[in-house]
Amino acid sequence: MNILDNKLYNRLNTIVDFIILNLLWVLMCLPIVTIFPATAALFGVVRKWNMKEEPPILKTYFQLFKDNFFQSMLIGFIWAFVGASLYLDFQLTSKNLLMKLLLVIIFSIYSITSIYLFPVMVHYKNTSLRIIKNSFFLAILKPIHLLFAILVIISSYIIVSHFPIILIFSASLTAYLIYMICYKAFQKAEEINANTIQVKGS
Predict the structure, then answer these.
(1) Average pLDDT for residues 154-162, to the nearest whole number?
(2) Domains of the chain, residue spans
(3) What average pLDDT does range 155-175 have in this prediction?
(4) Are 41 and 64 in contact (CB under 8 A)?
(5) What's the mean pLDDT in 89-100?
(6) How many helices (H) and strands (E) does the chain have?
(7) Res. 192: pLDDT tops 90
(8) Any bridge partners for residue 124, and if so which?
(9) d(CA 73, CA 90)
(10) In Å, what is the CA distance from 89 to each residue of 83, 96, 138?
(11) pLDDT value at residue 74
């Protein structure tokens, strides 16, 4: 009976941790402009969970928010500007099918790179430009991992659409699963480039 109680307690504790992390992310996103460091901190915490660490959530989240603030803001604003530019160009080229096709291809590249952006940011010590480049290369060089990450995002959207209550931990759980998938791609990349890759916290 004690074993069952312990398992139940651990599962409930895990759910509570995801809810707390989700709430922290939502609160820190409220000013809108802080969505980028808030998301970097979210992925930083789930990174530690994936690496079997159990840090205090509040302290760790705000420390990661602070540590990644400037780099995540820089990358975030650049990325938001690129995304807005692509959308505007798409709207302005409605009659040019060739240009529209080219923009769809570019936007697809933009989208798949976005999936890896924050996991790469919190995992590696790199310049902002290299983070973007590495996110792109990891996305195209590990298509199976990318496919699983896309399926996680789509599944999360569908489930939340049907069961809105899951919003209380959907962002943190989705980030956890995406990082878990990305981490496997990171491990394979690190095996190949063991002497040239710097991992945060190592």
Answers:
(1) 95
(2) 2-192
(3) 94
(4) yes
(5) 81
(6) 8, 0
(7) no
(8) 199
(9) 25
(10) 10, 11, 27
(11) 96
As given in the structure block, the two tokens for residue 84 are 């807005």
Tens digit of each residue's pLDDT (9 = 90 or more) over 109-131:
999 999 999 999 999 989 999 99
Report the C-alpha gap between 135 and 39 in whole angstroms: 16
In sequence order, what are the residues at sequence separation of 6 or more whose Cβ sits closer than 8 angstroms to the Cβ of residue 175?
A: 39, 42, 43, 46, 118
The average confidence (pLDDT) of the chain is: 90
- Residue 158: how many CB atoms within 10 A of its CB? 10
Report residue 11's pLDDT band, with 50, 70 and 90 as the boundaries.
Answer: confident
CB of 43 closer than 8 Å to CB of 149: no
Q: What are phi and psi of 105, to 5 degrees?
A: -65, -45
Could you write out the DSSP letters of every residue in 104-147?
HHHHHHHHHHHHHHHHHHHHB---HHHHHHHHHHHHHH-HHHHH
Q: Which residue pairs, CB below 8 angstroms and at least 24 apart, start in 42-48?
A: 42/118, 42/171, 42/172, 42/175, 43/118, 43/119, 43/121, 43/122, 43/175, 43/179, 44/68, 44/122, 45/21, 45/172, 46/21, 46/172, 46/175, 46/176, 46/179, 47/119, 47/122, 47/123, 47/179, 47/183
| Token pair recorded at residue 42 | 């979210």
